[in-house]
Amino acid sequence: MKFIISGGGICGLMMAIVLEKKGYDVAVYEAATAIKAVGAGLVLSTNAIKALQSIGIEKTVLAKANLLDHFDVVLANGELLMATDAKKLSKRYDAIGNATIHRADLHQILIALLRDKVAFYTGKRGVKVQQANNGVTLTFKDGTSARGDYLIACDGINSAIRQQLLPKSLPRYAGYTCWRAIVQHDGQFKDKYATETWGKNGRFGVVPLTDNRTYWFACLNTPQVRDPRMKAFTVADLTACFKDYHAPIPQLLALTTEKNLLWNDIEDIRPLQQLAFNRILLAGDAGHATTPNMGQGACQAIEDAAVLANCLNQSETIVKDFKAFEKIRLPRTTKIVNTSWTVGQLAQLTNPILTTFRNFAVKMTPQRVNEKQMDYLFDVEF
User: Fold this and answer.
1) Cα–Cα distance, 76 to 81 (Å, whole number)
2) Backbone phi, then psi, for 148, in 5-degree steps?
3) Element (H, E) at 376
4) What distance, in Å, lies between the first and last C-alpha atoms of the chain?
5) What pTM did the predictor assign?
6) Bridging pattern class, strands 25-29 and 276-277
7) H or E element: which one contains 136?
8) Can you give the CATH number for the domain in which 104 is found?
9) CB of 125 within 8 A of CB of 141?
């Protein structure tokens, strides 16, 4: 029995790992013409670590990760709004939480786990799918095609497969745009302490990685999608925006080069009502793309793989296993997409009256209440 996977990112590779472990024939088709060390940093929270553990690759991934002690939300002057003690969370949920890793490092780890086990093709962008009673055919942009018994679409927020199945499921712009970069330094910045800063000029995140690397992101409101002004922004423009923010924000920008700067608008897709379409399954950003405000994009892709591993062979057909996956995943991913959207709208507030009220409410919320609100996200088993 053969599974074909459209998309060779984190979700596609995770799916390939669990399918190969189950003994299936797997082929992965990636749109990029070459696998390069690109991307920024990401956080693997407790739920993702639990999912990796259930798949059996937790230690391999964590060997390349940085384990944080704190992840705090602060104001532009450095004043604390909300503290997150990662060690306390780990104890509460009996699992490591807030591990940071370079996306490229995670990608290389997953590829290494699949080497010589799974066929991996580059330069193959899936554009059309056809399914029959006995299989699925995926056609690529170059005119070639691949056939398998089942297809898992992991081809991202702009998934051609999802848009063929659900034509109205287009990306939804969140109202703000984002720059990202990873800078190399000499160890002068804290390596266990991450922050997200909310200020009138925009939002700025600082996330330490391994090997004296720090990942940062900056978000600015703009009503226009693909705003030419934002596209033209340089490191100097960002430095001017955030020059009055607390250390180490100006220092990180000073270390940033133009070639390391990544820019994209923040988008998601409205929660879907369906993920399983007979022999086709939507997963990762193709099925539940979320804004990054809760750091759950990659985490939910990893969860997808863990849940699929548990669903496979639990009924008489894979089609029914796909429906079981859908039943488990949709309520959870819907809540995360909606919550992340709301968090982003609050974090991007610039109106002085509204931000004053927001900051007061966040400060006055007891820590135990914040922790309780996160139970649905982290108190999960696979």
Assistant:
1) 11
2) -150, 180
3) helix 375-378
4) 25
5) 0.96
6) unpaired
7) strand 135-140
8) 3.50.50.60
9) yes
Residues 6 or more apart whose Cβ sits within 8 Å of residue 237: none
Tokens in use for 14?
């995770």
Tokens of 96: 């490591």
Give the pair of three-digit tokens for residue 222: 């703009």
Backbone angles phi, psi at 6, to 5 degrees: -95, 110
Tens-of-pLDDT digits for all 382 residues of the chain? Answer: 999 999 999 999 999 999 999 999 999 999 999 887 678 999 999 999 999 999 999 999 999 999 999 999 999 999 999 999 988 888 899 888 789 999 999 999 999 999 999 999 999 999 999 999 999 999 999 999 999 999 999 999 999 999 999 999 999 999 999 999 999 999 999 999 999 999 999 999 999 999 999 999 999 999 999 999 999 999 999 999 999 999 999 999 999 999 999 999 999 999 999 999 999 999 999 999 999 999 999 999 999 999 999 999 889 999 999 999 999 999 999 999 999 999 999 999 999 999 999 999 999 999 889 888 889 999 999 9
Give residue 90's domain range: 2-171+268-378
Count of domains for the chain: 1
Query: Is residue 254 included in any domain, yes or no?
Result: no
Cβ–Cβ contacts within 10 Å for residue 281, how many?
Answer: 30
Q: Please state, in angstroms and rounded to a whole number, the distance separating the CA atoms of residues 235 and 258.
A: 6
In a domain, 324, yes or no: yes
| Residue 336: exposure state from Cβ atoms within 10 A (0-12, 13-18, ≥19) | buried
Instruction: List residues bridging with 136 in a β-sheet.
Output: 131, 148
Is 82 part of a structural domain of the chain?
yes
Say how far apart CA 99 and CA 232 lie, in whole Å.
Answer: 33
